[in-house]
């Protein structure tokens, strides 16, 4: 059986005959591109994900318990000094790296282009999100007399544009030999019948596999090997869209070392029980983040003896991992969550269909699903005004306006 026949057999096995029909209509070069794509797809995994869309999410309340954390505000001076000493040792020794997840576009902000190229209107002249992060890292480099390797996860969609943007802006003064770009993985989009969508480019339509894909992407692109070669022991992973994100927080790092854990995370208290954020907890004895939509209302409102929310520690995408933890997670299949969304596609007659209603499933893994692979995690409660100024929505909550205010007030307090 030649390679083409093998592909056709594979597509028949998984009821993707419409792709066989597509292959018949393509020229040799186009056909080769689709065959190459088909050979990279794990059909068994994709069909399993499709079957899971038909199952109800079930969370048994009795398996969930609150999780311990340290409140930075309540630490003694001795505790902070000790954590800072431990954290500084790692950074000064060159054993620390940072990963920025920047695979998204700024569509929700009304911005054309990668989200990191969005300009936040601070101090009148404005700063790009990538520029804000570069400044943050440069300050740490100066303070600890080092150059922290900076790994930026892009997507197939925005990789070239991100590269061009950073080069054009001379990496905002960051050492370009210490900036590495790598691409996030993708998974096919499926319609309600489990058929893969075909895009305008006459290929199978794919979308990024969620921020949980960062671990396997680090391994598959050789970035994990690069980190090991550099002697990295701890890796910070955060998003591109938090304007006051501390990427080299020695207190968080020192706490993780002191607690002998492989993962540490920073949290902020939920603004109210209904705030739409994922919260830390323990499920079946393992650390976990539960999405707001999956936490029963009764539990969301529960308070402890001090009158504080029992499940009030929000996950703000501010995570630390040992290099060993990243390696372990990169080889484990994480849970994928499905989102039912509107996606245009090319139909059997070669015409583009732009749906008015959601028509297809996108599958994403979340970074915090990796926490369940470990027995424990250290959590440091920070403060919203010091740690969390997200730029997510065009207006209202978590918008450029709120992020600008938080950013300017934060730096005013540092003077």
Give a verbal description of the structure.
This protein is α/β, with parallel strands linked by helices and 415 residues long. The protein folds into two domains: 1-40, no CATH class; 41-414, Spore Coat Polysaccharide Biosynthesis Protein SpsA, Chain A (Alpha-Beta Complex), CATH 3.90.550. It contains 14 helices and 20 strands. It has an eight-stranded mixed β-sheet with strand order 2-20-12-15-11-3-6-7, sandwiched between helices. Helix 5 crosses helix 10 (250-258) and helix 8 crosses helix 12. The radius of gyration is 23 Å and the shape is globular. The N and C termini lie far apart (71 Å).
DSSP E strands, number: 20
Shape descriptor reads globular
The structural class is alpha/beta
Mean pLDDT: 93
Radius of gyration: 23 Å
CATH superfamily of the largest domain: Spore Coat Polysaccharide Biosynthesis Protein SpsA, Chain A
Number of helices: 14
> What distance separates the N and C termini?
71 Å
CATH class of the largest domain: Alpha Beta
Total domain count: 2
CATH architecture of the largest domain: Alpha-Beta Complex
Summarize the structure.
The chain is 33% helix and 20% strand. It has 14 helices and 20 strands. The N and C termini lie far apart (71 Å).
List descriptors.
415 residues; alpha/beta; eight-stranded mixed β-sheet; three-stranded antiparallel β-sheet; 33% helix
């Amino acid at each position: 059986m030649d390679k083409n026949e093998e592909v056709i057999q594979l597509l028949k096995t998984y009821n993707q005959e419409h792709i066989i029909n597509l292959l018949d209509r393509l020229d040799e070069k186009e056909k080769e591109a689709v065959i190459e794509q088909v050979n990279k797809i794990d059909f068994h995994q994709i069909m399993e994900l499709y079957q899971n869309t038909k199952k109800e999410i079930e969370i048994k309340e009795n398996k969930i318990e609150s999780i311990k954390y340290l409140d930075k505000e309540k630490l003694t001076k001795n505790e902070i000094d000790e954590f800072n000493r431990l954290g500084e040792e790692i950074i000064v020794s060159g054993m620390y790296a940072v990963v920025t997840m920047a695979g998204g576009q700024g569509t929700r902000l009304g911005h054309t282009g990668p989200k990191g190229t969005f300009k936040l209107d601070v101090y009148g002249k404005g700063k790009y999100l990538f520029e804000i992060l570069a400044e943050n890292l440069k300050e740490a480099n100066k303070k600890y007399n080092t150059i922290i390797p900076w790994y930026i996860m892009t997507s197939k969609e925005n990789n070239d544009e991100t590269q061009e943007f950073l080069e054009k802006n001379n990496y905002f003064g960051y050492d370009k030999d210490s900036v590495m770009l790598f691409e996030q993985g993708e998974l096919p989009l499926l319609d309600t019948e489990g058929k893969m969508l075909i895009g305008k480019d006459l290929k199978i339509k794919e979308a990024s596999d969620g921020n949980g894909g960062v671990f396997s992407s680090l391994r598959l692109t050789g970035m994990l090997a690069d980190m090991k070669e550099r002697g990295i022991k701890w890796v910070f992973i955060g998003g591109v869209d938090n304007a006051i994100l501390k990427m080299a927080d020695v207190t968080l790092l020192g706490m993780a070392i002191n607690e002998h854990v492989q993962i540490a995370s920073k949290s902020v208290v939920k603004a109210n029980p209904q705030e739409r954020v994922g919260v830390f907890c323990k499920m079946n004895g393992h650390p976990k983040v539960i999405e707001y939509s999956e936490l029963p209302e009764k539990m969301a409102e529960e308070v402890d003896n001090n009158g504080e929310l029992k499940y009030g520690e929000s996950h703000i995408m501010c995570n630390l991992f040992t290099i060993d933890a990243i390696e372990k997670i990169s080889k484990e299949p994480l849970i994928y969550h499905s989102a039912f969304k509107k996606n245009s596609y090319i139909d059997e007659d070669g015409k583009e269909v732009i749906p008015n209603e959601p028509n297809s499933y996108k599958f994403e893994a979340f970074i915090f699903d990796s926490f369940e692979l470990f027995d424990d995690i250290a959590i440091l409660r920070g403060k919203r005004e010091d740690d969390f100024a997200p730029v997510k929505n065009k207006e209202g909550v978590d918008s450029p306006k709120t992020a600008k205010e938080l950013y300017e007030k934060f730096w005013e307090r540092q003077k």
